[in-house]
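To whoever is covering the structure queue this week,

Two jobs came back overnight. Logging them here so there's a record in the thread.

Job A:
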Amino acid sequence: MNRQARAIPAADENLAVPLYHQVYLVLRENIRNGTYAVGAALPTEPELCEAFGVSRITIKRAMRNLASEGLVLRQRGRGTFAAPALPTSRVTDPMGDLLQNVMAIGAATEMRRLEGGMVQPSPDVAAKLGTPPGEAVLRTVQIRLARGEPIAYVTAHVPKSVGVQLPDPINAPAPMLAQLQKAGIAVARADQAITATLADPVSAPALGIEIGAPLIKLSRLVFDKSERPVEWLVALYRADRYEYRTTLSQESMGRRSSLQEVGR
């Protein structure tokens, strides 16, 4: 399966979510996060049947759903390909607002560590961080909790050269961006995107929700003053507990954005 950038979890027939929808969720996320680059061929139906442990009918139904959403292009006799991304709108926020927001989230939540350590990055992560071939990166996976309830599933990657400068990046309760600031790494800018997604078989149990439940997905690539990537973060927020707010001000011609716990 040379077109699979990472292992695919087998579908679980004991879950309430139909098998075809489990397959759809995993492939949908792999297309959106760049595991399958735009124009790249997805694994063949027999390969997907073997990877997920499901029938060809199940794979066909998942593919139909992906095609109906414009996520894949199916070409007879050639295969199925990841479609170009949807148009996006770009705005600029002050870096200070982002740092303030991250600090506030860290102060208002608790951290539960799931994973942490040096790993070989996926091709997508390596490309974002500009990691040399074969070089490991620091990866942490955490749950952020508010009042003891999980609200976010957060995965952060930093280059090895950055990770060794952090005192205790795996167990520290502060968000990774706050750790970078405290370690004296001069953060200059960040490219951030907020989209909607669905809970998959990995994030759903960690967040205590059903597979297919709506999530707010925040992706952020952080650069230092020399334009070196220093962090790639993907945070999945429970849509029933967090919301994104933006305050616009004509006087300052600026904006202030934040993710806030619902009900606060």
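Job B:
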Amino acid sequence: MTANLIQEQISKFEVTKLGDLTIRVPLCDEIPDIEIVEQKEIINKALATWLNIDGVAPLNFRLYGPAGVGKNTIVYHLARILQKELYIIRGGEELRPEEITCSPIATSSHTFEYIASPLFAAMLRGGICFFDELSRAPHSVLAPLASVLDDRRTLTSVNPGICLKAHPEFLFCAALNENAEESMMLPDFIDERTRPAIYVGFPSKEILEQILKNHVRNADNLWFKVFIKQFKNETISPRNAVKLLQYAYRLYCHEKNGTTNHAINDYEAAKYLDRAKKDILSANENNTDFGSKESKEEISVVSELLH
């Protein structure tokens, strides 16, 4: 990446002075306008965890569950409720330690800029830091979190020589998939500092139907009834359910020359859903958030045999 391109990307960051250092701090993430359906118990647990009582700092929690069940949506909703800025870090094997602290970036052959991470920004401004896919980050990358998530609430960045004390209103949460949680893939110091661990599971068919109605607003009610009937014996995540119904409905609209006024019957809707299922499953055959309970059990048995 060229120096000009780097400069262009960081030019939108806010310039902040910390002592003698000038640091560029990223702006908060845009919160998607996604309506949440029936997660009151989980929302209450999260809000209770974040209460600041008698001057004692809030706790840090993590959400875990199957892929696609709405863990991120819950965090977005919490940020809206609390009217707080949200800063997101996404875990991955390529993530480096300085990317969760503060890193120097060469903007020319002779000058450097110090770029703050989303975690740094949340601690500085008193926002929410959401570490998505926490278990996918290398353990070495997570080391700076030890002092952030305990009573010290400080972030140390060795390169610029900064020890940042968190704003009193700083909040932290994380998310990971169910298999990572059950396999205990988190290092002990992170496991202990991100509790409670709150489970987010598959919704009931009634809740799933309401989620579908929120995302496919122009479809006739018949589509939702046929969908629920057709997938009543399958475990399907809201994410893939929405994807599948949206695709089926688009196929139908396209083949009816873009009109939605054509009267559709149960058989025809089921046919479009079946066509959509084949394409969605083909593209997501390795995705664990879609499939019957029986197929998941078969995959689990095969995996154990291979290992």
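Note for Job B: The first helix runs from residue 3 to 10.

Please reply-all if you pick these up so we don't duplicate work.
Q.
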